[in-house]
């Protein structure tokens, strides 16, 4: 059984909120709420790629800097970035200066444009991979799933980079493709209700 922690407001939250004070707001207003906006979906999968090998606290602290540096994750604009932009970004101390991850985000922006042409939207594509709830029987006990493995494989086949199964699973958790809030977390039933009323794209 996954654990919860009781915050200063008396609410039970997922235990990972205890790792940093800024996590409470992120947990309460973003994590796990279903997202069908293409730009937000693209931003999140890029930031999950940047997180690889690092903590989410590091990425969250730099998120506004990332948005400023990466054209607010408008993938149509980011797809036009060139080698000069890569070199500029490598000098930006406000972000994670990792050439491979920077180049992957630009590459993925181009692949996102292609995906919209083929699929209609990023949301229509990603939500096709919404798993059956039974796949995650006990919340927060897995770092990958059969669906995250399948989605990762398909993205790589389409030319996306830094989209391994663990990265993709974290993306699915955060974007509400699954409800992975802990049993006992005050938000778990709310997320269930939001997911029930969500009109799936595509």
TrEMBL record:
SUPFAM superfamilies: DNA-glycosylase (SSF48150). Transmembrane segments: none annotated. It comes from the Bacteria. This is 3-methyladenine DNA glycosylase. InterPro entries: Adenine_glyco, DNA-3mA_glycosylase, DNA_glycosylase. Zn(2+) binds at residues 14, 27, 181, 185. GO terms for molecular function: DNA-3-methyladenine glycosylase activity; metal ion binding. GO terms for biological process: base-excision repair. Keywords: Metal-binding, Zinc. The keyword Zinc applies.
